[in-house]
Amino acid sequence: MKWIDVGIKLPPMFESVIVFGVIEKINVLPQAYEARRWTCCTMGFDVEKDKLWSWYTPCDTRVHNVTKWFAMPKE
Fold first, then answer.
1. Which neighbouring-strand residues pair with 45?
2. Average pLDDT, stretch 5-11?
3. Cβ of 19: how many Cβ atoms within 10 Å?
4. Taking every pair of C-alpha atoms in the chain, what is the biggest distance, in angstroms?
5. Residues 6+ apart with CB under 8 A from 61
6. Tell me: the pLDDT tens digits for 24-57?
7. DSSP code per residue over the chain
8. For residues 70 and 17, is the Cβ–Cβ distance under 8 A?
9. Where are the domains of the chain?
10. Which residues 6+ apart lie within 8 Å of 50 measured at CB?
């Protein structure tokens, strides 16, 4: 597995991946988290909805400043 820069490629929407980012008020330095790209815009914003998303952990905590990601390891 290798890290993929978010500026080069993003994972599919709603797919869990490992990301390198920051959870505010919990840590100061970026760390690895399981997260997914998620958007609440499902209707009426077809042109813009790909821009209206954020990274969230399985516990719905937002991850900021994500710089890279990689696919979840297969079991």
1. none
2. 94
3. 25
4. 38
5. 23, 26
6. 877 678 899 999 998 876 565 555 556 678 999 9
7. ---EETTT--PPTT--EEEEEE-TTT-SS-EEEEEEEE-S--SS-TTTTTTS-EEE-TT--EEEEEEEEEEPPP-
8. yes
9. 4-71
10. 13
